[in-house]
Amino acid sequence: MKVIVVVYLLLILYQLIGNVYSRLSNTHEIQVPEEWNLIVVNRWNELPEDYDVELTELSNGQMVDSRIYPYLQEMFDAARTEDVYPVVREGYRTAEEQQEILDDKIQSYINQGYSQVKAERTAKEWVALPGTSEHQLGIAVDINADKSKCSNEDVYEWLAENAYKYGFVLRYPPGKQKITGTSYEPWHYRYVGKEVAREIYEREICLEEYFK
């Protein structure tokens, strides 16, 4: 009889834990907005199945959503007038390219002596699973410097102070990892539109918090 009671209590506890976990998980879910520039893609919110994008190729071969190209160009032109020379290191990625990057990262950790399980877990802290990467939207870019003219730090500092003026936000700010699911990345910016970008900048929030 005691065994039955213990089993019964364990089942109730398991159900309670499951309900709590479910509620916590749901706090990360964000409904897909009608505005293309506000779609949230992260480890809890996958790329919409019907998402399609028209791409424009940059001078270095990287691709971006054609709708953000004029604003990106405007931002880069403004930076150059202040002797800051940004370049897009990474733009749009296909799901296959995202998987390849993740696989390479996992293998890199294995080569360093990590177990398969630890390598996969650690790699996923830095590289998104296919379907959960903003790079698949085409409106996110990793921006570094033309090293022959300035440093990455020069670019990151300028972007942090000015990107919002052109509709871009620092996607993964410091101290927001639990909300965004991604560590601080001073090079990763995405387009949200000038009005929203200004609000996010002035309130010092991340994109996920904008919807709360």
Question: Any overview of this molecule?
Answer:
The structure is a single chain. This protein has 212 residues and is α+β, with helices and mostly antiparallel strands. The protein has a domain at 32-93 and 133-211: 2-Layer Sandwich (Muramoyl-pentapeptide Carboxypeptidase, domain 2). The protein is built from 8 helices and 6 strands, in the order αββαβααβαβαβαα. It has helices spanning 2-26, 69-80, 95-111, 116-123, 152-162, 177-180, 194-203, 207-210; strands at residues 55-57, 63-65, 86-90, 140-145, 168-170, 188-191. The strands form 2 sheets. It has a 4-stranded antiparallel beta sheet with strand order 3-4-6-5. It has a two-stranded antiparallel sheet with strand order 1-2. A hairpin with a 5-residue loop joins β1 (55-57) and β2. α3 (95-111) crosses α4 (116-123). It comes from Agathobacter rectalis. This is D-alanyl-D-alanine carboxypeptidase-like core domain-containing protein.
Describe the structure concisely for a colleague.
The chain is of the alpha+beta class and 212 residues long.
Compute the number of strand runs: 6
Q: What's the shape?
A: globular
- Alpha carbon gyration radius: 20 Å
Query: Which strand order spans the largest sheet, edge to edge or round the barrel?
Result: 3-4-6-5
Number of helices: 8
Query: How would you spell out the order of helices and strands?
Result: HEEHEHHEHEHEHH
Whole-Å distance between the termini? 49 Å
| Second CATH tier, the architecture of the domain at 32-93 and 133-211 | 2-Layer Sandwich
Structural class label:
alpha+beta
CATH topology assignment of the domain at 32-93 and 133-211: Muramoyl-pentapeptide Carboxypeptidase, domain 2
Report the top-level CATH class of the domain at 32-93 and 133-211: Alpha Beta
Domain D-alanyl-D-alanine carboxypeptidase-like core: 63-194
GO biological process, one term: proteolysis
GO molecular function: peptidase activity
Protein name: D-alanyl-D-alanine carboxypeptidase-like core domain-containing protein
